[in-house]
Amino acid sequence: MTIDFHAEKNQLSYTGRTADDSWSQRILSLVNPVGKNVVDIGCGGGIYSKAWSGLGAASVTGIDFSQVMVEAAREQCADDPKISFAQGDARETGLPSQCADIVFARALIHHFPEQDLQKFFKEVIRLLAPGGICLIQDRTMDDVKMPASPTHFRGYFFTQYPRLLTIEQTRRPDDTAVQNTMKLAGLELVNKTTLWETRREYASWSELETDLLSRKGRSILHELTDAELKDLVHTIHDHVARQEKWNEQDCWSIWIGSATCGTIKGK
């Protein structure tokens, strides 16, 4: 069954790890966040809100439609006064106009039908100050279909259960459609880049096994029964258990756009 982001039992599904240096370095190659005001839409448990603060942002405002997630994020980031959170709709956040130098959204837009994607980017434009930049991180079907490997565990999900690809096909954004929607909303200098992000490093197979069986941070695994999930984990074990370390990587697309003719770093 599909994950319920409002359920208390899933409150910690998107907490418990930190953004990897592979993510941070790619972000820094695209934008300079030092002294900037960042809005993190679809912030989940605050993992990337905390990362933006660590990269030098002056303030980070996390928005999520789930009050359960907002409460988890507040708990996880309670020690950082630069970060605040509020419940809100990504298409109508309720934040002041032109309040953000950077708008970031990770693993969000695949939840939107086309009409909502248009509304979302209109809201992004409203939030961005002149010269502001948005960075949208999500997976296309090309990203999803990257082959399984000893570091790309996610690929085994789809070789074992091809029906999961059908589910992904219905929700994953198309690159051309995303770029066109961004441009129609008024974003300029629109571009896309690919990121292989290290999701997490595991000290032992048992640590990885526990993480997989918990479905933590992997909404697609909620489409499997417990028995199917156990079989999948057994398959992954057969491919990777003999390794000395377990470094999990995922393939992502990052779309970049500017609210005006401001300059995107590295372009």
Automatic annotation (TrEMBL):
Pfam families from the UniProt entry: Methyltransf_11
Domain of life: Bacteria
InterPro entries, A to Z: Methyltransf_11, SAM-dependent_MTases_sf
Protein name (database record): Class I SAM-dependent methyltransferase
GO biological process: methylation
Originating species: Brevibacillus brevis (Bacillus brevis)
Cited Gene3D superfamilies: Vaccinia Virus protein VP39
GO molecular function: methyltransferase activity
